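Long-time lurker. I teach an intro course on protein structure, and each term I like to show students one example going from raw sequence to a predicted 3D structure in C-alpha cell notation. This year I'd like something fresh instead of my usual example. Would anyone be willing to generate the C-alpha cells for the chain below so I can use it in lecture? Attribution to the forum is fine with me.
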Amino acid sequence: MTENSRLGKGLAALISSNEMDNSSSAFVENFDIERIVPNPYQPRMHIDPEELIEIADTIREYGVIQPLIITKDKNSDSYFLIAGERRLRASQLAGLKTVPVVIKESSPQEMLEIAIIENVQRKDLNPLEEAYAYKQMQDEFGMAQDEIARKVGYSRVAITNKIRLLGIPDEVKEDVLNENLSEGHARALLGIKDRTSLIAAADLIKKRGMSVRETEALVRKINYGKDSTTRSWKKTDFETDKYSTALSQKLGFTAHITKMTKGGKVTIRFNTRTELRELMEKLL
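-- Reply from a regular --
Happy to contribute to a lecture. Here you go:
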C-alpha cells in the first residue's frame, strides 16, 4: 500500500468525498474572504514567502481551483479555516475578495486532525511541527498513539519517534525547524543525555555538514569514548546505507547495518517493552 493511499484513508474518515451531499456541509462559490480567520489548531509554523508569491500568481491567472474548508465560529460571525492555509494566504496576497469554500461542521479535534492530515499528505510539515501536533492530539484530546497512527496512516512506532523529538533542547529545535538539521540528526542526538554535550554536538554537525550516519558515530563516541569496539567501526558505504534504510522501512523501526573490520552487525532500536514485542512479532 502506498503512503498516499494510507493517508488518503485517514483523510476520507474526516472529510466525506461527497461533501456536497453531506447535510453537515455546504459549498459556497464566492465566500467573503474577510470572514475567514486562521485555524487555531494549524500545525504549520512557517510558510515560505516565495512559495506564497508563486501560488498567488497562479491564483491571479486561474483562480482558486480547490475550495477551502471552513467551519463556523459559534461565538462570532467569523469562520475558522480548517484546511487550505496556503491558498487562503495566497488569495489574500493576490487581492481576492471572495474564495470558494466548503462549510463543514467540525469540532476542535476534527479541525486539528484535518489540518494535520492535509499537511502530512503534502509533506508540508517539518518533523517538529508534526511532533507538536501529535502531542496536542495526545494531550489535549486524549487520543492514544495507536489512534493517532490510524488517523494519519503511520505506524505507532513512527508516532512515538516523532513525539520523542520534542525532548531535544530548544536551541536544537530551532535548527530542525529551520532545516539546518534533519529528523534523523535530531533522533540520533537524543542519544546524548547531557544537554550541554548535545547542543555542542549539534553545532559540530552543522559546521562539518555531517551525515546522519556520521552523527550516530559521533553520539557513540561521546557516550562511550574510543574503546576497542568503536575503533573497529568503519564508515558505511552506499550499499549498507541502502540496506539500513530498506530494513527500517520494512520493520517500522530504526535499523542500522554497520561495517566492521571483520564482518559487521545489525542494530535495531526500540524504546519500550511494547515496541520490543511488536518487533519480535514482525521478526518471528
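Some talking points for your students: The beta strands are 25-32, 36-37, 68-72, 79-83, 98-104, 255-259, 264-268. The longest helix spans residues 49-62.
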